Amino acid sequence: MAAAEVLNAPGIPNLNNETSDHLPKLRSNQGTYVASSSTGWMLSTPSDAPLDEMRRRFREDGYVWVKHVIPRMAVYEMREHYFSQFAHTGMLLPHTSPRDGIFNTSADPTTYQGIGGIPIDSTNNLLNTAHADPVYRTFLAHPSLRAFIRHFTGWKQERIVDRAMLRHNCPGSQSTGIHYDQYFLRDGEDEFLTAWVPIGDCAATGGGLMYLENSTSLGKDLENDFLKGAEHLPKQERIDAFNQFMAKDGFMSHDAVEFQDIHREKVGRWLVGDYEAGDVVFHNPWMVHAATKNEDELGRIRLASDLRFYEEGAKMDQRWMKVWTHDDGL
Q1: How many CB atoms are closer than 10 A to CB 128?
Q2: At 117, is the secondary structure helix, strand, or coil?
Q3: Which of 27, 62, 170, 231 is the S-S candidate for 287 at Cβ 3.0 to 4.6 Å?
Q4: Backbone phi and psi for residue 312, each to the nearest 5 degrees, phi listed first
Q5: If the chain, 330 residues long, is cut into consecutive pieces of 10 residues, what is the mean pLDDT of each piece?
Q6: pLDDT at 160
Q7: Residues contacting 224, CB < 8 A, separation 6+
Q8: Cα–Cα distance between 83 and 87 in angstroms, integer?
Q9: Residue 220, exposed/middle/buried by CB under 10 A (0-12, 13-18, 19+)?
Q10: Residue 237 in contact with residue 231, Cβ under 8 Å?
Protein backbone atom coordinates (compact mmCIF):
# COMPACT_ATOMS: atom_id res chain seq x y z
CA MET A 1 0.00 0.00 0.00
CA ALA A 2 1.39 3.43 -0.93
CA ALA A 3 2.06 6.02 1.76
CA ALA A 4 -0.71 8.30 0.48
CA GLU A 5 -3.16 5.41 0.73
CA VAL A 6 -1.99 4.57 4.23
CA LEU A 7 -2.41 8.10 5.50
CA ASN A 8 -5.92 8.36 4.06
CA ALA A 9 -7.05 4.85 4.87
CA PRO A 10 -10.78 4.01 4.77
CA GLY A 11 -12.55 4.74 8.05
CA ILE A 12 -10.32 7.68 8.97
CA PRO A 13 -12.35 10.93 8.96
CA ASN A 14 -10.99 13.20 6.25
CA LEU A 15 -11.54 16.38 8.27
CA ASN A 16 -7.88 17.14 8.62
CA ASN A 17 -6.43 16.84 5.15
CA GLU A 18 -4.42 19.57 3.52
CA THR A 19 -6.85 20.01 0.60
CA SER A 20 -9.83 20.97 2.76
CA ASP A 21 -11.29 24.37 1.91
CA HIS A 22 -12.64 24.76 5.43
CA LEU A 23 -10.03 25.92 7.90
CA PRO A 24 -10.82 26.54 11.57
CA LYS A 25 -10.64 29.98 13.17
CA LEU A 26 -7.90 29.61 15.76
CA ARG A 27 -6.84 31.93 18.52
CA SER A 28 -4.74 31.70 21.65
CA ASN A 29 -5.17 33.39 25.04
CA GLN A 30 -4.24 36.79 23.65
CA GLY A 31 -4.22 38.51 20.28
CA THR A 32 -6.42 38.14 17.24
CA TYR A 33 -7.52 35.10 15.28
CA VAL A 34 -4.81 33.42 13.22
CA ALA A 35 -5.21 34.23 9.51
CA SER A 36 -6.42 31.34 7.35
CA SER A 37 -3.19 31.59 5.32
CA SER A 38 -1.29 30.85 8.54
CA THR A 39 -3.49 27.91 9.55
CA GLY A 40 -3.44 24.30 8.37
CA TRP A 41 -4.71 20.82 9.17
CA MET A 42 -2.54 18.17 10.74
CA LEU A 43 -2.50 14.84 8.94
CA SER A 44 -3.59 11.84 10.96
CA THR A 45 -2.05 8.38 10.75
CA PRO A 46 -3.80 5.05 11.40
CA SER A 47 -2.39 3.10 14.33
CA ASP A 48 -1.68 0.16 11.99
CA ALA A 49 0.25 2.23 9.45
CA PRO A 50 3.71 0.90 8.52
CA LEU A 51 6.16 1.61 11.31
CA ASP A 52 8.72 3.17 8.97
CA GLU A 53 6.08 5.62 7.74
CA MET A 54 5.09 6.69 11.25
CA ARG A 55 8.71 7.16 12.26
CA ARG A 56 9.39 9.15 9.10
CA ARG A 57 6.49 11.49 9.81
CA PHE A 58 7.65 11.96 13.41
CA ARG A 59 11.24 12.61 12.32
CA GLU A 60 10.33 15.07 9.56
CA ASP A 61 7.29 16.80 11.11
CA GLY A 62 8.18 16.71 14.80
CA TYR A 63 4.89 14.99 15.63
CA VAL A 64 2.70 12.09 14.58
CA TRP A 65 -1.03 12.08 15.27
CA VAL A 66 -2.11 8.46 15.62
CA LYS A 67 -5.75 7.44 15.42
CA HIS A 68 -7.48 5.05 17.82
CA VAL A 69 -4.53 4.09 20.02
CA ILE A 70 -6.68 3.70 23.15
CA PRO A 71 -10.17 2.17 23.14
CA ARG A 72 -12.77 4.93 22.93
CA MET A 73 -14.80 3.46 25.80
CA ALA A 74 -11.80 3.57 28.16
CA VAL A 75 -11.21 7.23 27.32
CA TYR A 76 -14.80 8.21 27.99
CA GLU A 77 -14.85 6.27 31.25
CA MET A 78 -11.86 8.36 32.33
CA ARG A 79 -13.66 11.55 31.23
CA GLU A 80 -16.77 10.64 33.19
CA HIS A 81 -14.77 9.79 36.29
CA TYR A 82 -12.86 13.08 36.17
CA PHE A 83 -15.87 15.35 35.73
CA SER A 84 -17.87 13.42 38.34
CA GLN A 85 -15.43 14.86 40.87
CA PHE A 86 -16.47 18.38 39.80
CA ALA A 87 -20.22 17.73 39.55
CA HIS A 88 -20.96 19.48 42.87
CA THR A 89 -19.08 22.67 41.94
CA GLY A 90 -21.49 24.13 39.39
CA MET A 91 -18.99 23.74 36.54
CA LEU A 92 -21.18 21.35 34.56
CA LEU A 93 -24.41 22.28 32.81
CA PRO A 94 -27.32 21.05 34.97
CA HIS A 95 -29.03 17.83 33.88
CA THR A 96 -26.10 16.76 31.69
CA SER A 97 -23.79 13.80 32.14
CA PRO A 98 -20.24 14.17 33.46
CA ARG A 99 -19.27 11.93 30.53
CA ASP A 100 -20.24 14.77 28.17
CA GLY A 101 -18.46 17.42 30.24
CA ILE A 102 -20.64 20.33 29.08
CA PHE A 103 -19.81 23.68 30.66
CA ASN A 104 -22.46 25.56 32.62
CA THR A 105 -22.83 28.70 30.50
CA SER A 106 -24.37 30.63 33.40
CA ALA A 107 -21.09 30.27 35.32
CA ASP A 108 -17.94 32.40 35.09
CA PRO A 109 -15.28 30.32 33.28
CA THR A 110 -12.49 32.03 35.23
CA THR A 111 -13.91 30.45 38.39
CA TYR A 112 -13.19 27.01 36.96
CA GLN A 113 -9.70 27.43 35.51
CA GLY A 114 -7.61 24.30 35.25
CA ILE A 115 -3.85 23.87 34.82
CA GLY A 116 -2.68 26.56 32.40
CA GLY A 117 -4.86 29.15 34.07
CA ILE A 118 -4.97 30.24 37.69
CA PRO A 119 -7.25 27.80 39.55
CA ILE A 120 -8.99 28.92 42.72
CA ASP A 121 -8.17 27.12 45.97
CA SER A 122 -11.14 24.75 45.89
CA THR A 123 -10.30 23.72 42.31
CA ASN A 124 -6.65 23.18 43.27
CA ASN A 125 -7.75 20.78 45.99
CA LEU A 126 -9.83 18.80 43.50
CA LEU A 127 -6.96 18.79 40.98
CA ASN A 128 -4.54 17.47 43.61
CA THR A 129 -6.93 14.61 44.35
CA ALA A 130 -7.60 13.87 40.68
CA HIS A 131 -3.91 13.53 39.84
CA ALA A 132 -3.29 11.02 42.64
CA ASP A 133 -6.51 9.11 41.93
CA PRO A 134 -5.89 5.39 41.26
CA VAL A 135 -8.33 5.48 38.32
CA TYR A 136 -6.17 8.10 36.57
CA ARG A 137 -2.91 6.34 37.41
CA THR A 138 -4.35 3.11 35.96
CA PHE A 139 -5.44 4.96 32.82
CA LEU A 140 -1.85 6.12 32.32
CA ALA A 141 -0.75 2.50 32.25
CA HIS A 142 -3.36 1.41 29.70
CA PRO A 143 -1.84 -1.57 27.90
CA SER A 144 -2.87 -0.35 24.44
CA LEU A 145 -1.02 2.94 24.95
CA ARG A 146 2.06 1.34 26.44
CA ALA A 147 2.26 -1.38 23.78
CA PHE A 148 2.03 1.22 21.02
CA ILE A 149 4.82 3.30 22.57
CA ARG A 150 7.15 0.29 22.67
CA HIS A 151 6.19 -0.57 19.11
CA PHE A 152 6.77 2.97 17.86
CA THR A 153 10.03 3.65 19.70
CA GLY A 154 11.57 0.18 19.64
CA TRP A 155 12.22 0.42 23.38
CA LYS A 156 12.18 -2.81 25.37
CA GLN A 157 10.66 -0.94 28.29
CA GLU A 158 9.36 2.61 28.74
CA ARG A 159 9.30 4.75 31.88
CA ILE A 160 6.61 7.36 32.38
CA VAL A 161 7.32 10.60 34.17
CA ASP A 162 5.18 10.50 37.33
CA ARG A 163 4.26 14.16 36.95
CA ALA A 164 1.66 13.55 34.27
CA MET A 165 -0.96 16.29 34.07
CA LEU A 166 -4.71 16.45 33.60
CA ARG A 167 -5.76 19.71 31.98
CA HIS A 168 -9.37 20.81 31.71
CA ASN A 169 -10.14 23.96 29.78
CA CYS A 170 -13.64 25.45 29.94
CA PRO A 171 -14.99 27.50 27.03
CA GLY A 172 -13.76 31.05 27.52
CA SER A 173 -11.11 30.22 30.13
CA GLN A 174 -7.33 30.53 30.03
CA SER A 175 -5.56 27.87 27.95
CA THR A 176 -1.98 26.59 27.80
CA GLY A 177 0.50 29.11 26.39
CA ILE A 178 3.18 28.69 23.72
CA HIS A 179 6.11 26.47 24.71
CA TYR A 180 8.26 23.47 23.89
CA ASP A 181 8.56 20.69 26.45
CA GLN A 182 12.31 20.45 26.88
CA TYR A 183 12.66 23.62 28.92
CA PHE A 184 10.41 22.18 31.63
CA LEU A 185 12.54 19.01 31.91
CA ARG A 186 16.06 20.40 31.55
CA ASP A 187 17.61 18.21 34.23
CA GLY A 188 17.09 15.03 32.23
CA GLU A 189 18.01 13.73 28.81
CA ASP A 190 16.34 15.45 25.87
CA GLU A 191 15.46 12.11 24.25
CA PHE A 192 11.96 11.71 25.60
CA LEU A 193 8.59 11.26 23.95
CA THR A 194 5.54 13.36 24.79
CA ALA A 195 2.11 11.82 24.35
CA TRP A 196 -0.82 14.23 24.30
CA VAL A 197 -4.04 12.34 25.00
CA PRO A 198 -7.39 14.07 24.43
CA ILE A 199 -9.85 12.62 26.93
CA GLY A 200 -12.97 12.96 24.82
CA ASP A 201 -13.66 14.28 21.34
CA CYS A 202 -12.09 17.69 20.83
CA ALA A 203 -12.82 19.90 17.81
CA ALA A 204 -10.09 22.09 16.34
CA THR A 205 -11.64 25.14 18.02
CA GLY A 206 -12.30 23.28 21.26
CA GLY A 207 -9.07 23.95 23.16
CA GLY A 208 -6.91 21.15 21.76
CA LEU A 209 -3.26 21.49 20.86
CA MET A 210 -2.03 23.39 17.83
CA TYR A 211 1.50 22.82 16.54
CA LEU A 212 3.76 25.35 14.86
CA GLU A 213 4.81 23.78 11.58
CA ASN A 214 8.57 23.14 11.12
CA SER A 215 9.36 24.46 14.60
CA THR A 216 11.70 21.73 15.89
CA SER A 217 14.77 23.67 14.78
CA LEU A 218 13.36 26.84 16.32
CA GLY A 219 12.88 25.09 19.66
CA LYS A 220 16.48 23.88 19.61
CA ASP A 221 17.76 27.35 18.66
CA LEU A 222 15.78 29.03 21.44
CA GLU A 223 17.04 26.53 23.99
CA ASN A 224 20.65 26.96 22.86
CA ASP A 225 20.29 30.74 23.16
CA PHE A 226 18.88 30.35 26.63
CA LEU A 227 21.64 28.00 27.77
CA LYS A 228 24.31 30.42 26.57
CA GLY A 229 22.68 33.33 28.36
CA ALA A 230 22.14 31.36 31.56
CA GLU A 231 25.62 29.86 31.91
CA HIS A 232 26.35 32.11 34.89
CA LEU A 233 23.24 31.05 36.81
CA PRO A 234 23.28 28.47 39.61
CA LYS A 235 22.13 25.07 38.40
CA GLN A 236 18.75 25.16 40.14
CA GLU A 237 17.91 28.46 38.48
CA ARG A 238 19.39 27.41 35.14
CA ILE A 239 17.07 24.40 34.86
CA ASP A 240 14.03 26.31 36.11
CA ALA A 241 11.39 27.14 33.49
CA PHE A 242 10.45 30.19 35.57
CA ASN A 243 13.87 31.85 35.75
CA GLN A 244 14.74 35.42 34.76
CA PHE A 245 15.04 34.56 31.05
CA MET A 246 11.58 33.01 30.80
CA ALA A 247 8.07 34.45 31.00
CA LYS A 248 6.72 34.65 34.54
CA ASP A 249 4.30 31.77 33.97
CA GLY A 250 6.82 29.57 32.13
CA PHE A 251 5.45 30.18 28.64
CA MET A 252 7.16 31.98 25.76
CA SER A 253 4.01 33.84 24.71
CA HIS A 254 0.23 33.75 24.82
CA ASP A 255 -0.22 35.41 21.41
CA ALA A 256 -0.06 32.90 18.53
CA VAL A 257 -0.18 35.56 15.82
CA GLU A 258 2.62 37.66 17.29
CA PHE A 259 4.85 34.65 18.03
CA GLN A 260 4.43 33.30 14.51
CA ASP A 261 5.19 36.70 12.97
CA ILE A 262 8.38 37.09 15.02
CA HIS A 263 9.69 33.72 13.83
CA ARG A 264 8.10 33.65 10.38
CA GLU A 265 11.38 33.04 8.54
CA LYS A 266 11.91 29.77 10.44
CA VAL A 267 8.44 28.29 10.82
CA GLY A 268 5.24 27.60 8.91
CA ARG A 269 1.59 27.54 9.87
CA TRP A 270 -0.26 26.71 13.06
CA LEU A 271 -1.55 23.16 12.54
CA VAL A 272 -4.51 21.63 14.32
CA GLY A 273 -6.88 18.67 14.12
CA ASP A 274 -10.38 17.49 15.00
CA TYR A 275 -9.28 14.99 17.64
CA GLU A 276 -11.30 11.93 18.65
CA ALA A 277 -11.34 10.04 21.91
CA GLY A 278 -8.70 7.32 21.60
CA ASP A 279 -6.32 9.41 19.47
CA VAL A 280 -2.84 10.28 20.73
CA VAL A 281 -0.48 12.92 19.37
CA PHE A 282 3.20 12.14 19.94
CA HIS A 283 5.70 14.98 19.63
CA ASN A 284 9.38 15.62 20.23
CA PRO A 285 10.80 17.77 23.07
CA TRP A 286 11.44 20.77 20.78
CA MET A 287 8.19 21.08 18.86
CA VAL A 288 6.55 24.44 19.62
CA HIS A 289 2.88 24.12 20.52
CA ALA A 290 0.04 25.66 22.52
CA ALA A 291 -3.63 25.10 23.21
CA THR A 292 -6.26 26.89 21.20
CA LYS A 293 -8.80 29.06 22.96
CA ASN A 294 -11.77 26.83 23.73
CA GLU A 295 -14.66 28.12 21.62
CA ASP A 296 -16.37 24.76 21.21
CA GLU A 297 -19.78 25.08 19.55
CA LEU A 298 -21.23 22.36 21.79
CA GLY A 299 -19.89 23.91 24.99
CA ARG A 300 -17.66 20.94 25.76
CA ILE A 301 -14.92 21.31 28.34
CA ARG A 302 -11.63 20.22 26.87
CA LEU A 303 -9.94 17.52 28.96
CA ALA A 304 -6.56 16.06 28.05
CA SER A 305 -3.48 14.59 29.64
CA ASP A 306 0.13 15.19 28.65
CA LEU A 307 2.55 12.37 29.38
CA ARG A 308 6.31 12.05 28.96
CA PHE A 309 8.09 8.78 28.37
CA TYR A 310 11.77 7.85 28.51
CA GLU A 311 13.49 4.63 27.61
CA GLU A 312 14.22 2.64 30.74
CA GLY A 313 17.72 3.49 31.95
CA ALA A 314 17.75 7.03 30.55
CA LYS A 315 18.58 9.97 32.80
CA MET A 316 15.26 11.41 33.88
CA ASP A 317 14.51 14.77 35.43
CA GLN A 318 13.99 13.67 39.03
CA ARG A 319 12.03 16.82 39.85
CA TRP A 320 9.26 15.31 37.71
CA MET A 321 9.29 11.88 39.35
CA LYS A 322 6.47 12.74 41.72
CA VAL A 323 2.74 13.17 41.26
CA TRP A 324 1.63 16.67 40.25
CA THR A 325 0.40 19.06 42.93
CA HIS A 326 -0.59 22.66 42.39
CA ASP A 327 2.19 23.99 44.63
CA ASP A 328 5.13 21.84 43.47
CA GLY A 329 6.89 24.81 41.85
CA LEU A 330 7.37 23.17 38.46
Answers
A1: 16
A2: strand
A3: 62
A4: -55, 130
A5: 35 42 87 94 96 96 98 98 95 96 94 83 91 97 98 97 96 92 92 97 96 97 89 85 71 93 96 98 97 96 98 95 90
A6: 97
A7: none
A8: 6
A9: middle
A10: no
